[in-house]
Amino acid sequence: MNTLKIFSDLPLGASALALLTDGVAPHELILPARPAVSVLAASGPDPAFAGADIAFGQPAVDAVLQSPRLRWLQLASAGFTRFDTPEFRAAAARRRWLVTNSSSVYAGPCAEQVFAFMLAQARQLPLTLASRCANGSDQWNQLRNQCSSLAHQNVILLGFGAIGRRLVELLRPFEMDITAFRRSARGDEGVAVVTPGQLPAALAAADHVVNILPDNAESRLFFNADRFAACKPGAVFYNIGRGATVDQPALLAALQSGRLAAAWLDVTDPEPLPPDHPLVSAPNCHLTPHTAGGHRNEAESLVRHFLANFRRFLVDAPLRDRIM
Amino acid sequence: MNTLKIFSDLPLGASALALLTDGVAPHELILPARPAVSVLAASGPDPAFAGADIAFGQPAVDAVLQSPRLRWLQLASAGFTRFDTPEFRAAAARRRWLVTNSSSVYAGPCAEQVFAFMLAQARQLPLTLASRCANGSDQWNQLRNQCSSLAHQNVILLGFGAIGRRLVELLRPFEMDITAFRRSARGDEGVAVVTPGQLPAALAAADHVVNILPDNAESRLFFNADRFAACKPGAVFYNIGRGATVDQPALLAALQSGRLAAAWLDVTDPEPLPPDHPLVSAPNCHLTPHTAGGHRNEAESLVRHFLANFRRFLVDAPLRDRIM
């Protein structure tokens, strides 16, 4: 029997590591001297990588490009900015690497995070959780009047992968007017799709602008002053994708002018923002520290997703969450 | 033609008042010298009430009991504690009053409020909105691990009227295990129903305990120390019904012991709680000031709901949201 060597640089706890070791046996797990800092950050170079047939985690791009034996790389994140370059895509195609990510693991928690933001905004939780106003007071009447329902509102999703699809499922009971922005419509979206030329009109109609764009050369600073100016006055902006897709000074100006009623950002550039950054102190900007994908037993979820794909790999079945 | 006299004590703004006046014409609207303080509070006695065929708002119980001509009372709230007594019910039956409330107006916003609480808890928004921790730090790993998904969790709804039904619709995409507690099952709930004898076992299984009970003699202090002790360790308690249904010292003890992971309360007894009340300072108790039903143009929504029922009343059609 030919055993495969599986390299994993993930910072796994004891139970997730046991799950992975047992799950790949009798194939061999290779661990680096120093694992990656988190499920999001690239690990450093490691000599053990050269022996790997399969890599699972966040290896450095150079290590992958130089690997003599690699056949399949599964990333432990949904984002894959470091690998989303013409050079890497060309190498992956030439060397017939399978490249997968962990979208399935993060789609649910990420969609729930942006949904939590939307409902917290509708119910004005930042203000109402801080208020002890009395029933019938002027402040109380004003707070109740600032609250709203998501029902029948208009939302545009920018980027339409696993997170967007799950969010559409979650929003269904609200009978919202949902539009997705994609470079080209495939016809299987289940919602109206707008392409770049139609975007300004779609932004002008949207009460909720949900940015799920990945970070790559095309999307960098996508949300610039022109696009914020195209938004409906009083719209709410959410970012659950990557911070680099937003021109942050333009976002701040839109929040200060009132063009946007509020922003809810799980991602920024850099992360975290420095304490004196004006978005940190803007009263209508709500920040979470890139916790959208997090969930109890996240490492175990990542390992289970890898093992399910590993069983497919062993029998040459199509892998889930394939990106290249 | 016999014109009807419609008494309304609601504190309506100019546009809602115009909508009501136009909507009932050529029937006559009678306004009191002093309207109710809010859509929730009883108004004082008013001599004009005696002439009313129909009352819309929050009249005092005595005024209704003494009215010589009343045929229909529509309350401007979903709750109707003041009227939910054997004496009033007997009088309403004897004098053949129609009594309706405004459940339809509040069901959506109230269900969205408790749903916002559930998602804010799952995504740990009180902690994550306050944290500027760095990706990969110990605090970050801990925060991400405290986050969770609502998918496949267990929820019990106590009270199952319009709010509960709407909440079940909203929760559907999460494929949760949903149970409703009612005094007796009617068979049209669409979810599993437990009656009082089965409640301890149902509480022991629930990750989320949603209290939507109305306040009446049977429900007062329903959530007492025994019922909190029956909850699953780490459960989350939500109250969107009425504060008087909860034994607050028992709730505080359950929050302090860790039996409950957190409480999210839109209603308390009294409202608001005094600033030095221990529930106000408990770090795992999250309070909003009875803003659950609020929404933009709430007064207009109440008037539209009344007018829709008024048109039914005129042709003897069944009224919506009938409670007696």
How is this structure best described in words?
The structure is a homodimer of 324-residue chains. Chain A is an alpha/beta fold. Chain A is built from 12 helices and 12 strands. Chain A has helices spanning 14-24, 61-66, 86-94, 103-122, 125-128, 138-146, 162-171, 199-205, 225-230, 248-257, 278-281, 298-314, and strands at 5-8, 28-30, 54-57, 72-75, 98-100, 154-158, 177-181, 192-194, 208-211, 235-239, 260-265, 285-287. In chain A, helix 1 links the parallel strand 1 (5-8) and strand 2 (28-30). The two termini of chain A are 29 Å apart. Chains A and B meet through helix 4, helix 5 and helix 6 of A and helix 4, helix 5 and helix 6 of B.
Task: Please provide a brief summary of the model.
Two copies of one chain form a homodimer. The first copy, chain A, is an alpha/beta fold and 324 residues long. In chain A, 35% of the residues lie in helices and 15% in strands.
Class derived from helix and strand content of chain A: alpha/beta
Helix count of chain A? 12
Low-confidence runs of chain A: none
Radius of gyration of chain A: 22 Å
Biggest interface goes to: A-B, 59 and 59 residues
Overall shape of chain A: it is: elongated
Give, in spatial order, the strands making up the sheet with the most strands of chain A. Answer: 8-7-6-9-10-11-12
Order of helices and strands of chain A: EHEEHEHEHHHEHEEHEHEHEHEH
Q: Quote the beta fraction of chain A.
A: 15-25%
Mean pLDDT of chain A: 94
Q: Separation of termini of chain A?
A: 29 Å
Summarize the biggest pleated sheet of chain A. 7 strands, parallel
Oligomer: homodimer
Helix content of chain A: 25-40%
Care to count the β-strands of chain A? 12
